[in-house]
TrEMBL record:
Keyword set, alphabetical order: ATP-binding, Nucleotide-binding, Ribonucleoprotein, Ribosomal protein, Transport
One Gene Ontology cellular component: ribosome
Protein name: Ribosomal protein L34
Pfam families documented for this protein: ABC_tran (PF00005)
GO molecular function, one term: ATP hydrolysis activity
Amino acid sequence: MLRVKNLWFSYNGRRVLRGVSFDFNEGVGCLLGPNGAGKSTLMKCIAGILKGEGKVTLDGRDVLKMPERERAKLISYSPQEFSVSFPYTVFEVVLMGRNPYVNPLRGPGEEDEELAWKSLEVLGLAELAERPFTELSGGQKRLVMLARSIAQGGRLLLFDEPTSFLDFRNQHVVLSAIRELRRGRLILVSLHDPNQAMAFCDSVFLLRSGSIFVSGRPQKVLTPENLSRLYKMPVEVIEVAGRRVIVPGANKSVLLQTMLLTESVIKLDAKSLEVVECCSGESSAKL
Ligand SMILES: Nc1ncnc2c1ncn2[C@@H]1O[C@H](COP(=O)(O)OP(=O)(O)OP(=O)(O)O)[C@@H](O)[C@H]1O
């Protein structure tokens, strides 16, 4: 189990995480929250890349107090942005995921190379193996970095916005591949699409203003009320062919709830007094 307890973090005195606490104990979990909510910061603190105040334990072990190399065997982190300036081949970049296990004097062994190949194959990237990483498109680079995380393995895999830059099909490929990895592991992803969280994740953690305000099973958490509160805009959940689909809302009951929650401004039609627009900060919904 991953347990995050009362985690605080500030950048130059500006608080970003404000006592984040949650338990995560199976499958794929999703951090959902608006831009700037602190999702990447939280992931980096869990991975020990940023030094927050608080406690992070993985199966009872205090990961923040572990030596870096030991932590890298337990936790792999795939960042939102990555820069590789030397023109390493795709295969070499993926093989680097094995670094925590490699004896620096001997270099990677056969088993490491095999794992790197398998990781490329899982994501359908074997054909890119000899290409220089620096010459790939943004989406291809994203896929290669995911392959690297898969090669690194570990008990907890963190993927920060794994679907960014990816086309419609590859978003599905990546989320399916991530889901396949969950046996015996905990996987935490950050996403921007609540529909993807609903379809691919076992639990959801809503992060707002640096703390988790609700968490649990997607069906329980991804409600119009919670999502309207999270994104400060009307949100509806509708049924299409038996599937729940989350859409920006225009339903009046949702609007009224949202107005109360977000202190929105509404515009009424002068004659009918019908609500025609609901404005909250920078977002607005026309009816
Ligand atoms: N290196 C940094 N120095 C100073 N402030 C930072 C730094 N990185 C992030 N921040 C700030 O911390 C806050 C949280 O950023 P973070 O990247 O964790 O949010 P996020 O939820 O991942 O956002 P997004 O969905 O846009 O990626 C933001 O206000 C951001 O401006």
